[in-house]
Amino acid sequence: YRTPPILIAPLLQEFFKEWPPEKLTHWPFIAQAYTPKTIKSVFNRFINLHNSGYLIDNPPGLFTLIIKKRPKRKTNYSYQ
What we know:
mainly alpha, single chain
């Protein structure tokens, strides 16, 4: 849970390198907006879908669709 987004974004780009995103800031945004635990749980869902025989035509699109249904990272900013 303490893994910084700057390390997660390149891993997401490497995993989905066959499907380049429309925006270059897509994977850094996902890494900043969601916790590593959430990202890992979506990858586990992908593995379960693949093992059950589900064919995924657009993996990055499905990944983004699933993760956007999850709660976003909470910010702990306190401006007092």
